[in-house]
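In response to the reviewer comment on reproducibility (Comment 2.3), we provide here a single inverse folding case reported in full, input and output, so that an independent group could reproduce the run without further information from us. The structure tokens appear first.
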């Protein structure tokens, strides 16, 4: 009896462990005995039983009804035990070392807020490790709530907040304000918990939101691409908009470029849908989209976004590379800021002329720039200026300034200096970037209290020995 119970439990544990390691679901939609597919967990037990008579004799139909060890509750308990063991192993690997936290939020199927916590550290062999550590349901996403939950998870495994040496969050989410508050709370408690923006995250997501109208138009264009807007005559809109490969708008930048390039074709399709759509709603949507697209405001914003993203796209692409050269990335950040600033200071006249020519080509009315601008909600500081100033200051300058603000908030001088100095520790290309002065500067400027004075004095000589003994090693 005991051996049978033991084998039955071990079978369930092994199946749960294998499915979890493969990222597979355990449960099935129909787990009844008459179901043709009872879910991965039960089907895997059945498969193991078919290859082993001992297993077959103690599981599923041959198991006691009160000790089958296959219920959802048992599965959850096994998962919980395995997760705890994994966390303890991660905690053991961290030891007393410093570590970084990476946090993101999302909503589960029940619309409850949840927070994922990832730990990043250097193990005893010198390898960088990054492990998912926990997911926590939170009652709200206020900065103080998030900090309390993170600290609770860390303290549960005796991880000291004072050992945090870096923090990273999703800077483009609608929780940016809360993330900024959370960042400040940890910095107040641990001044060395430097915030570094997630470089792999698409910077374009933070640079794209210039207007609601632009987003709506891109959605209309996406609908045209996948054929959701059909005409009464059954025309193929994707064909009208040339080849699908040319309309595969996989990023915001390519979306804007595609819409500019195929503006006439897009308008033609919308006109056709407006006239021959299957129903009143479809025809109304097409009419509204056409009116919006063929307005000066929309064309102005479309070209403005293209102009800005033309400058930022190279940086965005570089930051998404798995193997990043931080030095080059920081140079790209600096040059991107300079080019955006140059656009602000001297790009207005040329930009406005491009927009006017485009409007004339597509028969879109261009407003008289010298006419007085009528403010919908009057403010004392906005009275008595013309339309040209409105587009130049309220739209052109405002959009550019917001992009500069995003770049400066993610890549301020302190973070750029910290990342640049850290490159001295990069082992790539036989420690090509190794620099004794940079490492010593890193200690003095950013981690002075992590080293006692005697260690600081000896560090330079240790690094010099390292440079001679390791960098000149014949196997490197």
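Designed residues, in position order:
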């Amino acid at each position: 009896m005991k051996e049978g119970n033991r084998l039955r439990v071990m079978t369930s544990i092994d199946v749960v462990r294998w499915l979890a390691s493969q990222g597979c679901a355990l449960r099935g939609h129909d787990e009844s005995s008459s179901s043709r597919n009872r879910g991965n967990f039960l089907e895997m037990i059945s498969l193991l039983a078919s290859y082993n008579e001992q297993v077959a004799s103690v599981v599923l139909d041959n198991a006691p009804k009160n000790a089958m060890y296959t219920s959802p509750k048992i599965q959850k308990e096994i998962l919980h035990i395995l997760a705890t063991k994994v966390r303890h192993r991660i905690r053991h690997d961290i030891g007393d070392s410093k570590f970084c936290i990476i946090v993101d939020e999302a909503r589960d199927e029940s619309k409850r807020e949840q927070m994922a916590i990832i730990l990043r550290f250097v193990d005893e062999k010198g390898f960088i490790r990054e492990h998912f550590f926990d997911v926590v349901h939170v009652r709200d996403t206020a900065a103080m709530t998030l900090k309390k939950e993170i600290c609770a998870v860390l303290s549960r495994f005796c991880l000291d907040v004072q050992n945090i040496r870096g923090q990273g969050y999703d800077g483009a989410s609608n929780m940016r304000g809360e993330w900024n508050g959370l960042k400040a709370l940890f910095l107040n408690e641990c001044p060395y918990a430097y915030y570094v923006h997630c470089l792999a995250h698409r910077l374009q997501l933070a640079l794209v939101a210039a207007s609601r109208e632009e987003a709506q138009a891109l959605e209309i264009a996406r609908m045209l691409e996948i054929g959701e807007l059909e005409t009464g005559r059954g025309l193929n809109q994707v064909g009208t908009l040339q080849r699908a490969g040319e309309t595969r708008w996989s990023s915001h930048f390519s979306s804007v470029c595609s819409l500019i390039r195929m503006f006439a074709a897009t308008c033609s399709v919308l006109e056709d849908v407006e006239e021959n759509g299957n129903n009143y709603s479809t025809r109304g949507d097409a009419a509204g989209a056409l009116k919006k697209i063929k307005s000066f405001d929309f064309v102005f914003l479309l070209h403005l976004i293209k102009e800005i993203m033309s400058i930022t796209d190279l940086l965005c692409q570089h930051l998404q590379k798995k193997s990043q050269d931080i030095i080059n990335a920081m140079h790209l950040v600096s040059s991107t800021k300079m080019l955006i600033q140059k656009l602000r200071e001297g790009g207005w006249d040329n930009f406005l002329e491009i927009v006017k020519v485009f409007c004339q080509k597509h028969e879109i009315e261009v407003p008289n720039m010298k006419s007085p601008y009528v403010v919908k909600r009057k403010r004392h500081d906005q009275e008595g200026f013309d339309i040209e100033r409105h587009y130049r200051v309220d739209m052109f300058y405002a959009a550019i300034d917001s992009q500069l603000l995003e770049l400066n908030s993610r890549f301020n001088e302190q973070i750029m200096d910290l990342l640049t100095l850290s490159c001295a520790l990069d082992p790539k290309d036989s420690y090509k970037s190794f620099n004794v002065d940079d490492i010593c500067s890193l200690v003095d400027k950013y981690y002075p209290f992590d080293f006692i004075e005697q260690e600081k004095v000896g560090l330079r000589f240790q690094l010099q020995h390292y440079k001679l003994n390791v960098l000149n090693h014949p196997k490197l």
